[in-house]
Amino acid sequence: MKKYTHAWLAFKAIERLETTHLARTNKKYAAHLVSWFKNHKDGVIQGAWYPDAVIKDMAYSHVLKFTPEEGKREFRNLPSSSLMYARKKTSALFKKGFSIDKNTNLPSRCEAIAHAVIDNLKMQETEAKGSPISPTDNHVATLLFMLSHYIADAHVPFHCDSRKFSQGDNLHGHIEGLWEKEIEKFYSIDEANERFFYQPNGYPLPRNENQYPSSLLTLVETELSNRKFLITWGRNNSSTLDFMTAVCQYSYLLSYDLFPSQYNETSVTLANWRNLPGQKVSFEELSVIVLSDAIDSIARVWLRVWRRYMKWKSKG
After folding, report:
1. From the CB of residue 263, how many other CB atoms can be counted at a distance below 10 Å?
2. In this structure, what CATH number is given to the domain that contains residue 207?
3. Largest CA-CA distance found in the chain, in angstroms, rounded
4. Cα gap 281→175, rounded to integer Å
5. Which of 70, 155, 258, 267 has its Cα between 20 and 30 A from that of 11?
């Protein structure tokens, strides 16, 4: 995904935690995270873009590349609310064999940053004020925003498909660019200071509101408003690593729903990609699946990370 899309997803994840129904204890943790986030919101655009702009580990840590092969494989579970998970019913590749490029490691990257957020928060709590080794709030915020970047990337089907859709007509970049244009069209961005302009409630300020009902973003918000937020990783998943591995599996299946197995980067073009024989998902459906699931996943991982830190803090 591109710069402003990543930042918008992060804000929507926090808005999700602020407005959704949660059990009382989790609501307490969510409220603390929401308040902390809003105190650091000016860093979201830069922080969520840091993995692309500075770290530049796109070739391996932003992807987990699957290739179909003979045999059977276990697919992990996702929360039942996930649209990506529901598509297993239509996928020709569900429970079929696959190989994974051993040089790609997106779920492990998410696990590592999730631990780093908690570790740095613990260091803040235990180090004396002014300690030269104590992380700053801005440092922790940047890690949190970076984590949202990697989580979001896992939901983009091209990040989990070994076919090279960044080549040829670069359908990967083209489709991500369509999402970016929607954000730029419907939100006010202070480009000079790399932040959104804000509403009084701290969320990005909308614009062109009379046109918003026809936007893809409206479809995403409608989906989320009708969906229960689930904090679970999905049955039998016990960590960020397990959860993100599952996300990548179903992202791979979604890629083959969009571009069936007989196609690759040489046969899918800017002229035909929306109307391929055998295509099982439209661009509009794909957008709702990817963006709404990414928002919930960011919210889920962030909340569980924050909850783990706060539970530790309460015992201190």
Report:
1. 20
2. 1.10.575.10
3. 63
4. 14
5. 258
Domain count within the chain: 1
Domain that holds residue 121: 3-315
Q: Are 40 and 137 in contact (CB under 8 A)?
A: yes
**pLDDT of 37-63, one tens digit each?**
999 999 999 999 999 999 999 999 999
Q: Which residues of 128-160 are buried (b: 16+ CB within 10 A; e: fewer)?
A: eeeeeeebeeeebbbbbbbbbbbbbbbbbbbbb
pTM of the model: 0.97
Residue type at position 192: A
CB atoms within 10 A of CB 174: 12
Integer Cα distance of 234 and 243 in angstroms: 7
98 closest CA partner among 58, 68, 78, 76: 68
φ, ψ at 37 (rounded to 5°): -60, -45
Structure tokens at 193: 């200071």
Contact 40, 148 (CB under 8 A): no
